[in-house]
Design goal:
By secondary structure, the protein is of the alpha+beta class. Helices cover 13% and strands 29% of the residues. The strands form 2 sheets. It has a 7-stranded mixed β-sheet, with no helix packed on it. 19% of the residues are buried.
Length: 156
């Protein structure tokens, strides 16, 4: 009996060790460069989950439109906060600026007032409200303005 329990315990430990190492192995994904990395070479975003809910999203090379603006590249944009499952804002439309912080109120992400020049800054959304902080480039010149903007769907 004692031998049987030791066998089961050993098999369980080996299984847990093997399961825990494979998903996080730095040797996966066919990476052949020097040094180690955490991620994937595949064309998929990196998602961080807790309690089966997407809490952080890092875009792969992708482009999409926000509101009626033209579709533009949003490569490496990062979304942090509730994904509002099942509508999952980190999948549709996705982070709307380089760093997008999403609050936990309501059931939607506010994009009212968004413009494509807002992509290189910090966006904060909560329910239907949106706030942006970042640079706005003027024309082809290397001239930028610092912008603090906010928009609400239904101001009271």
């Amino acid at each position: 009996m004692k031998k049987y329990i030791i066998y089961i315990f050993s098999a369980l430990c080996l299984s847990i060790t093997n399961y825990a190492q494979n998903p996080w192995s730095t040797a996966l994904n066919g990476y052949t460069g020097t040094g180690l990395f955490f991620g994937t070479n595949n064309p998929y975003p990196l998602r961080i989950y807790t309690q089966n809910e997407n809490r952080m999203h890092i875009n792969h090379n992708t482009a999409y439109a926000i509101n009626s603006q033209a579709s533009i590249a949003r490569n490496g944009h990062i979304g942090i906060g509730r994904s509002l499952t099942p509508t999952s804002i980190w999948n549709n439309p996705g982070p709307i600026s380089l760093l997008h912080l999403n609050g936990d109120e309501g059931a939607m992400m506010g994009t009212y007032g968004y413009r494509n020049w807002m992509r290189n800054g910090i966006t904060m959304t909560s329910n239907s409200d949106m706030m942006f902080m970042g640079p706005r480039r003027r024309g082809a010149d290397d001239i930028t303005d610092a912008v603090l903007g906010w928009a609400v769907k239904n101001p009271s």
